[in-house]
């Protein structure tokens, strides 16, 4: 699961880190990069708690938005990833979602995306074909959170979507207003 903390526009909140925290983070990053490089060179697939068999799918999130990328998926398979949006404010905020993508032609255009917001379906259809307009997602309570689940599937009758081809990618921007 990936988490994002909302920030109000015009009020940047930059964390202050001590030199020991920076050193520790730097050492951790170097160890992580060495491990990732070793695994990549060895050909061992990385598996996380939300990695599904037969799926090459990643969800990365940051303050500017979330990127969903699919590189492979077997026919009849599905994979899910979640992102949690946290509201650190002492008052509720209104949340909106904007997709930036084009419908994918991967697997003959059969790749299906389902987006759920707090267990309510907000989109289900072709990957990348959600309207690229601001969509209201409702209120996030003060110091509360809101979870989005992205599920990508490929029908049994579709051609497999295999690694090595063009990835299917969509980005999502989160907007909040008081």
From TrEMBL:
Source domain of life: Bacteria
KW Membrane (keyword) present: yes
Transmembrane segments: 22-41
Keywords annotated in UniProt: Membrane, Transmembrane, Transmembrane helix
The protein's name: Uncharacterized protein
Organism (species): Nocardioides marinisabuli
């Amino acid at each position: 699961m990936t988490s994002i903390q909302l920030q109000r526009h015009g009020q940047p909140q930059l964390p202050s880190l001590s030199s020991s925290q920076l050193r520790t983070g730097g050492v951790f990053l170097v160890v992580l990069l060495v491990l990732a490089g070793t695994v990549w060179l060895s050909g061992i697939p990385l598996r996380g708690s939300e990695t599904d068999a037969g799926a090459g799918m990643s969800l990365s999130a940051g303050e500017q938005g979330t990127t969903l990328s699919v590189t492979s998926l077997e026919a009849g398979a599905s994979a899910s990833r979640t992102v949690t949006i946290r509201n650190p404010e002492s008052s509720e905020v209104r949340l909106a979602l904007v997709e930036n993508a084009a419908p994918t032609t991967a697997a003959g255009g059969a790749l299906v995306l389902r987006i759920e917001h707090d267990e309510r379906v907000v989109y289900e259809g072709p990957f990348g074909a959600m309207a690229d307009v601001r969509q209201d997602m409702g209120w996030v309570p003060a110091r509360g959170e809101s979870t989005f689940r992205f599920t990508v599937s490929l029908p049994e009758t579709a051609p497999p979507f295999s690694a090595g081809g063009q990835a299917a990618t969509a980005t999502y921007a989160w907007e909040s207003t008081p």
